Amino acid sequence: MDDGSRNAGGPAAERTSALARTPPRAQPPEEARGPSVGPIATVAGGVPAVISALRHVYGEMDVVRGTKLLLKVNQKEGFDCPGCAWPDPGHRSMAEFCENGAKAVAEEAMSARVTPAFFRQWSVADLSLQTDHWLGKQGRLTHPMVLREGATHYEPLSWDEAFALVAEELRALDTPDAASFYTSGRTSNEAAFLYQLFVRQFGTNNLPDCSNMCHESSGSALNETVGIGKGTVTLEDFDRADAIFVIGQNPGTNHPRMLSSLEAAARRGCQIVSINPLPETGLNRFKHPQDVLHLIGPGTALNTLFLQVRINGDAALLQGLAKALFELEDARPGTVVARSFIDDQTLGFDAYAAHMRAVTWEDVEQGSGVPRAQVIAAAEILARSERTIYCWAMGLTQHRNSVACIQEIVNLALLRGGIGKPGAGLCPVRGHSNVQGDRTMGIWEKPPEWLLSALTREFGFEPPRHHGMDVVETLHAMHDGRVKVFFALGGNFLSATPDTEFTAEALRRTRLTVHVSTKLNRAHLVHGRRALILPCLGRTERDVQARGPQFVTVENSMGVVSASRGSVAPASEHLLSEPVIVARLASAVLGARSRVPWLSLVEDYDGIRELIARVIPGFDDFNRRVREPGGFALPNGPREGRFTTKSGKAHFTVHALPRIKLEPGQLLMMTIRTHDQFNTTVYGLDDRYRGIRNGRRVVLLHPGDMKALGLSADQLVDLSSHFEGETRLARAFRVVPYNIPRGCAATYFPEANVLVPVNSFAEKSRTPTSKSVVISLTPAGESRALPAGAVA
Ligand SMILES: Nc1nc2c(c(=O)[nH]1)N[C@H]1C(S)=C(S)[C@@H](COP(=O)(O)OP(=O)(O)OC[C@H]3O[C@@H](n4cnc5c(=O)[nH]c(N)nc54)[C@H](O)[C@@H]3O)O[C@H]1N2
Ligand SMILES: Nc1nc2c(c(=O)[nH]1)N[C@H]1C(S)=C(S)[C@@H](COP(=O)(O)OP(=O)(O)OC[C@H]3O[C@@H](n4cnc5c(=O)[nH]c(N)nc54)[C@H](O)[C@@H]3O)O[C@H]1N2
Ligand code: SF4
Ligand SMILES: [Mo]
Hints:
By secondary structure, the protein is α/β, with parallel strands linked by helices. It contains 28 helices and 33 strands. The longest helix has 18 residues, at 314-331. It binds ligand MGD (2 copies), iron/sulfur cluster and molybdenum atom (MO).
C-alpha cells in the first residue's frame, strides 16, 4: 500500500533505531508528493460509489465475510452501522448501507491484526512517524497492552493486571476530580450508562465527550430556545416537507443516505436550498448506488438553490432571510408571519421583529457574501413553504458565534410557525452513530439535577454536584497538572482535539493514559508516564456473555432507539465488550464501596437496560420495546407541539452579527472531512467528489486570492494561524485552486488541528472553532525559524 508518505513501508525486524528514544510525534508526517487534482465531481453516488465501497470491503477481508457483513448493516436483526447517526428508513431494502458505511464496516471488520509481536517490532516513537492511514491499515488490536514507565515499546499484560493498574492510579489521586473520563460517540447506551454511573460513584463529573467538539452548540442553542437539546423531526417528516434547507453540512460524504431522503423529496417537488462555502457534490446531483435503474444516466438534481455563503457568514444570511420575510409580510400581510402560533407559543417576538427590521441589506451582503437577490429568492421559498425542515452540521457548530447562529435558525422556524407539525422542524444532523444516545445516558460534564437524584435513589450514593470539565477544560487541566489520569472510552483524543501540540504536551504530563479502542491510533502514541490500550469488541462482532449472546442499543439522530447485534467472530479471543470493560474496571476501583452488582449486570445486558429504564425518562419497558422491529422513539416535547422550556414557550432571541477582523493577507480557514475518512480514521487518500486524489495536506483557495498572495497551484506553503497575539504553524501544505469564496480557505481535519487555538471556542458551548481559524500563508521554507507546532 503506497500512501505517499515518506515513512511508508513494512515493519523492520526488531527495530532498535535511535528514534526509539526521541519523544513520539503528535502530528502526522508531511507528504513527499503533491496530490493529483481534477475537476469537482458533478454527480454523487452512482457506479463510482459502488466500486469504492466494494474495493474497501473486499480489500480488507475475504468475500464471504465481507458479503455477510454488508447484508447485516442496519437490518432489523443486524448491527447498527458504525458510521454516522443518520436513521434507518422504516422499510428496509436488502442492502441498507452507503459507500461510507461500507468503509466503516471494512475498517472495523478487517482481517489484519495488531498483535503483541507487532508491538515488539515497533517502538512507540517509530510508530509515530507513520501516517494515520498506515496506522489504521495495520489492523485490529488483539491484546491488552501496557507501556511501562520509561519503556519504548508496548507489551502485553492480563486484563486483571490492567484493571489493577488503573485502580492503583485512580486510588492514588488526591481528589476524584484529578481523573478525566472521555467518551467518543460509538459507545453503546449500555456501556455509556454503566460508565457514567461508575465515574460518578468514583466521585467526579469529569465526563468530556466528542459532543463537546461537535453538536454541543446545537444542544446549547436548542435547550435555551425550545427546551430540548435535540432535533424535532423524524425521517417521515422528509416525505412531507415543502422545503429543506441544508446548512453547513456535506451529506454526500458524511451522511450519504440522507441523499436518498433528499432525492425522494426532490422528485416530488420539494425545494432544496443549500448554504455552504463549497458547492458540495452530493447536493448537486445524486444517483442512488443501490437503485440499479438510476445508476446510469444523469441522476436526480437536488438543489433548487445554492447560496455560496462565506465562512461564518451564516448569521448575516439568516438575518437577511428574516429581514426579507418581514418585507414579504408587509407586501402580503397575514401570509408570512405565523401570528397565532407566535402569540400562543412563543416569547420575545417584538424585540426580534424590531431587530430584524433594523438590519440593513449592506450588513447582510457584506457579512454573508451572498447577493441580496439570492437571499430574497431563498426567502420566497421559505415564505411559500408551509413545511420546512432545517438541517445543519459542523459548518454551523464550530464557530465563535455558533450558538447564536443556530438560534437564528430557530427564530426563522418560529417566525413561520414551523416546529411541532408534520413535515417541518429542526434537524441538527448528528455525527457519530450513538453520540446522541451517550448524552441521553448521562455522559455529560454538566449533569442535570434529576439525573443525580435518580442515581442517589437507585444506587444509594451521593454523586458530586459540581460540574465537571469539558474537552477544552480537560486539556488545560492536564497541562497544568490538575488532571493526572486520562481514560478514553473510544475515540482519538490527541488528533480530534484542537491545538495538537498543546494537547500532546497535556497528555505527556499525565501519570496514566488509557484508551479503550478497536484500532491503533495516534492517541496511543503520545502518552502519560504509563499508558494502556484496552482492546474491545466492535459493532460488527458477536458479543457472548455468561447468559448467552447479547445485543446493545443505540439512539439515532432523530431520537429512535434500536438494537444492534454483531454477527461475525471477534477479531481476537482476548477482546472484551465495552460494558464488560467498564463493569470490571468499576468493580476493581470501587470494590465494596458500590452496591451496584457490576459483574452480574454484564452477564446479561437486559439487567443494565432495566436500570436504564428506572433512571432515564422515556425508557419505560425498555427491554420489551427495544425488541420490537425498528425500536421506539423517545419523547420529544417540541415535536409534539409542547415546548419544554421553563416558561413552556419557545423563545425568539436577538443577536448582534459577528465581526471577525482579517488583516491584509489573512484568510478565514475551515477544517473539513474528505470523502475517505471517518474523523481521525483515514480510509484512503482521495477526496473523490472534490477531485483531489492521493494527498491530504492541501489548502483550498480561491484563484483570486492565490493571485493576490502570489501563490501558484501545487505550490508548497506553510500555514500560520493567528489568535490573540499567538502564532501556530503547520508545515508543507499544497495549494489547490478551488471554487471557494474570496477570503476563505479549507484544509482537512486532523492535519490542520495544530492550527486551532485551544482558547478559541464558541460562546456558551465552548466548542473549538475548527471552522473559523484566521490564517496566513508563506511559501514553504520561509517560516523555518519557528519549530513545527510551536506557539510563538
Ligand atoms: N464518511 C464520514 N461520515 C461522517 C464523518 C466522517 O468523518 N466521515 N464524521 C461524522 C461526524 S462525528 C460528524 S459531526 C459529521 C460531520 O458532518 P459535516 O458537518 O458534513 O462535516 P464537515 O466535513 O466538517 O463539513 C462541514 C460542511 O460545512 C461547510 N462549512 C464549513 N464552514 C461553514 C460555514 O461557516 N458556513 C456554512 N454554511 N458551511 C460551512 C463545509 O464546506 C462542509 O461542507 O459526519 C459524521 N459522518
Ligand atoms: N479541526 C477539526 N477538529 C475536529 C472536527 C472538525 O471538524 N475539525 N470535528 C470534531 C468532531 S465533530 C468530532 S465528533 C470529534 C471526533 O473525535 P473522536 O470521536 O475522539 O475521534 P474518532 O476519530 O471518531 O475516533 C476514532 C477511534 O475510535 C476507536 N473506535 C472505533 N470504533 C470503536 C468502538 O466501537 N469502540 C471503541 N471503544 N473505540 C472505537 C478507534 O480506535 C479509532 O481510532 O473530532 C472533532 N475534531
Ligand atoms: S448514512 Fe451513515 S449510518 Fe447510514 S449506512 Fe451510511 S454511514 Fe452508515
Ligand atoms: Mo462529530
